Amino acid sequence: MEFHDDAKLCQLYPPSLAALNKAFRKTAECPSDFMYDHQTGKCYKLIAKKATWLDSRLACNALGSHPVIAASSSDTKTLINFMELPSLATNMTYCGYTFWSSGMGFSPPTNLTYVWRPYATKSKDVYLPMKYTNWDLTQPDNAGGIEGFVHIKARKSANWNDLPNSNLLCVLCEVDMD
Ligand SMILES: [Ca+2]
């Protein structure tokens, strides 16, 4: 019987960008215009419109979603791949390869214990603890004492930085299908 060593095959034939693109296949289960990622079991949509953190969260919530939550290294890996999708290149360039997440200080800018706070509406407002983190080296620094809102910062690392709400950024919306 012939045995296929998948790991070896992957080394010989690393996944192409086209294959990555395919991995984010659209499914009927995701909200319209969202892309499904089978690794994380989440649907994603980049809103290529720059807005404050609070307005960006409202925009995601209006689509039945919330700004992205990077809860694990596997989520981070998916975000790194997401940023390299050929179909998103134009929008990613416009967005500067950065976008808001659901992360915010508990009570910015005085109490910057960071949590995930995905929903604006009172009935759905929850504070989820940030167990996994992927901060950039010197972050969070609460620069100028006015920060407290987390964006996914950079290509290749998808690491994080805190910024003031008033900074205008794109947002990556997400729906957890699990
Ligand atoms: Ca900062």
Automatic annotation (TrEMBL):
Q: Which PROSITE patterns match?
A: C_TYPE_LECTIN_2 (PS50041)
Q: Which GO terms describe its molecular function?
A: carbohydrate binding; pattern recognition receptor activity
Q: Where is the C-type lectin domain?
A: 39-174
Any one cellular-component term (Gene Ontology) = external side of plasma membrane
Q: Name one GO biological process term.
A: immune response
Q: Which domain of life is it from?
A: Eukaryota
Which InterPro entries does this entry report, sorted A to Z? C-type_lectin-like (IPR001304), C-type_lectin-like/link_sf (IPR016186), CTDL_fold (IPR016187)
Name the SUPFAM superfamilies for this protein. C-type lectin-like (SSF56436)
Q: What is this protein called?
A: C-type lectin domain-containing protein
User: What is the source species?
Assistant: Helobdella robusta
